[in-house]
Amino acid sequence: MATATATQYQAVQKGGPFTVVSIPKPCPGPNEVSIRLKAIALNPLDWKKLYFGFMIESWPAVLGIDGAGIVEDVGQGVNNFKAGDEVFSLFGHDSRASSFQEVSVVPEMFVAKKPRNLSFEEAASLPICYCTAGAAIYSALKIPLPFLPDGATTGPQPKSVLVLGGSSGVGAAAIQILRLALPTAAILTTSSPQHHAHLTSLGASRGFDQKSPSLVADIKSATPDAKGVDMIVDAVASGASQTNIYDTLSADGPKEVGEVFSGTQIQVPEGVKRTVAFGRQVFEPPGGKNAMTALAGLLSEGRYKLPNRVQSVGSRFEAIAKGLEVLKGGISGTKLVVTV
Ligand SMILES: NC(=O)c1ccc[n+]([C@@H]2O[C@H](COP(=O)([O-])OP(=O)(O)OC[C@H]3O[C@@H](n4cnc5c(N)ncnc54)[C@H](OP(=O)(O)O)[C@@H]3O)[C@@H](O)[C@H]2O)c1
């Protein structure tokens, strides 16, 4: 009997090019799910891997950390999914678990049923930004997330939080997660002014132009007693170029920064506690194993919205290389996706 095959979109070497390769179709092991990809979202990590060799052990390599599709098969011990289910998922870093391919195999915990009201492309745009924002808030800043059932952690609960880079995928996710976690807190954010109305619709109290010369003073004056914010979520490594942004932290507060890992070296002033966050940390105990299922629930209930506009860069694997070029050049309030 002929072996079943599937195609992979492999980056041949650092910087590319890509090539389409046929491999034996992968099978899920215990507690794993194999997914036939219908849509893939592109992330800054993909181009950082491609052009800098970031986190790549050897070439050729398969990239891609976000996607949505149809369950192909399930491994032993998987009870929540069956072949044919429409799902969206976080994907992995090795060639078996990355999303730039026809069939990928991921841990069951990374997968959730796709809400009916979302297209595959919209669903694909969500996982890593939600997971990373969740990790910065829940794992780094120790703010309990009410939608992770056993997810209570302890720590000072902030009355105000500044999200740096609110219009980024991670930032727009962070605003929504913070609003769910801290219903009465002031959630301030920086972005270009064109995005402020959208970011307040997601739950921000107010947006600030990150290029304003009076940014720090403007942010402080919008906090209770103009003392400054209790905590910062840095979604876009703002602290590297805006070194005075830490002056927005209240001298009386915990002075904590949850910084999304970006590969950029950032120095914070003495007395400021900086914790770097990675998307997968959100799955850590106690509540994290439910993180993706919780996202599906929030979406179905309308309590979590698409953080950013979803823009297609084309269909078939060949659109990925072009899309990564666009992403590397810089995008604004947009998630790029490819239909497989
Ligand atoms: N550690 C992890 O697990 C993990 C996971 C995902 C992402 N990341 C990292 O997180 C970062 C964000 O990823 P992403 O996908 O959310 O990015 P993205 O959506 O591609 O980011 C683009 C946005 O960043 C905003 N921006 C850039 N510099 C800014 C600044 N100084 N102040 C305010 N806004 C600024 C831009 O805002 P305007 O257009 O409004 O100016 C733009 O909307 C990247 O470095 C990525 O590598 C890490």
Automatic annotation (TrEMBL):
Signal peptide span: none
SMART domains referenced in this protein's UniProt entry, alphabetically: PKS_ER
Record keyword Coiled coil present: no
Keywords of the record: Oxidoreductase
Domain of life: Eukaryota
Keyword Chloroplast: no
CDD domains on file: enoyl_reductase_like (cd08249)
Segments forming domain Enoyl reductase (ER): 15-338
Family: Belongs to the zinc-containing alcohol dehydrogenase family.
The name this protein goes by in its record: Enoyl reductase (ER) domain-containing protein
